[in-house]
Specification:
Elements: E1 2-13, E2 16-27, E3 31-35, H1 42-49, E4 57-62, E5 65-66, H2 71-75, E6 78-81, H3 93-101, H4 109-120, H5 133-145, E7 151-155, H6 163-178, E8 182-187, H7 190-196, E9 199-204, E10 207-213, H8 214-219, E11 223-229, E12 242-247, E13 251-256, H9 260-267, E14 272-278, H10 282-298
Parallel strand pairs: 3-8, 3-9, 6-7, 7-8
Antiparallel strand pairs: 1-2, 1-4, 4-5, 9-10, 11-13, 11-14, 12-13
Helix pairs in contact: 4-5
Length: 299
């Protein structure tokens, strides 16, 4: 079952294109990554999905409901974490959470609040105005999760968080996902998307250029090979599939898309100290698809 469905969703700001013909689905219980640099159209897509912006054309559904006609029903089941949040500065965190909870029928509210604030080490007695930017982000996280939503939509959720808090946040997300919560995770920080997401959509200049599982993306790209030798390294490795060969006195590095068995057979005549054959990381995958998209557009 698809929780989110976009069909050629398009938003123009006057003559300026925010997003154009954006189409993809997010399935029930999935952690779906949405990646692209700042200004690529991630936030515009999210705000249009949430009916904060009216689409210029195309359509989208959440929980099988039209995002425009059924916006109120949809929002009751969603937890939304914007990239930036603003609150009444004189409220305490506790007062804000009580106010937020008043819009929902939250079962076991006190325990839910304690679990989230303890996990993120957030003091609910402090005033919003006294909080650092990192603690204000914690407030936003707790508020988005407080009412046990069926779908979490997260826009740059870890900005301002230190590594320890980020780790605690990821653990919360994984626990929520185990309970069946679908998570839409938008970010320009590729490492965090790679850490928790099942599939990703890559957006560039308002257009989707790839939707794929991270695992399949890795399989279809070159592997990184790094070899160190006990003696002088060879001038070349003479088999098909070696790309960008780099050599120093006792080490070689290259990219490889050939047969691993042929590679190991070729290397058997050398005295090897260490060898590492690794899948590309998401940064390399991202740059690969961006470069290919630019080259195709230039043709």
């Amino acid at each position: 079952m698809n929780i989110i469905e976009l069909n050629k969703l398009t938003k123009f700001y006057g003559k300026i294109c925010g997003i154009k013909d954006v189409s993809f689905n997010v399935t029930n219980g999935e952690i779906f990554g949405f990646i692209g640099p700042n200004g690529a159209g991630k936030s515009t897509t999210i705000r249009t999905l949430l009916n904060f912006l009216f689409p210029s054309s195309g359509s989208a559904k959440i929980f099988g409901l039209d995002i425009v006609k059924n916006s109120e029903m949809i929002k009751k089941r969603i937890g939304y974490l914007p990239a930036e949040s603003n609150y009444y500065d004189n409220m305490t965190v506790r007062e804000l959470m009580d106010y937020s909870a008043s819009f929902y029928n939250i079962k076991d509210f006190e325990n839910r609040l304690k679990y989230l604030t303890d996990s993120l080490d957030l003091d609910i007695q402090r005033k919003i105005n006294d909080l650092s930017s990192g603690n204000k982000k914690k407030v936003s996280i707790v508020q988005s999760l407080l009412h046990n939503p069926d779908l979490l939509i997260l826009d740059e959720p870890t900005s301002g968080l230190d590594p320890l808090v980020q780790s605690a946040f990821y653990e919360i997300l994984q626990e929520e996902n185990k309970k069946g919560v679908t998570i839409f995770f938008s970010s320009h920080i590729l490492s965090e998307v790679q850490r928790i997401c099942d599939r990703v959509a890559i957006i560039r200049q308002g257009k989707i250029i790839k939707v794929e599982s991270i695992e399949n993306m890795k399989k279809n790209l070159l592997k990184n090979v790094h070899i160190s030798f006990t003696e002088t390294s060879p001038d070349c490795i003479d088999i098909q599939g070696v790309v960008k060969y780099q050599r120093s006195k006792k080490e070689i590095r290259f990219l490889f898309d050939g047969d691993i068995n042929e590679l190991t057979a070729c290397l058997s005549k050398y005295k090897i100290e260490n060898i590492a054959i690794e899948d590309p990381n998401l940064d390399e995958i991202f740059l690969h698809f961006y470069k290919n998209h630019e080259e195709n557009n230039d043709k």
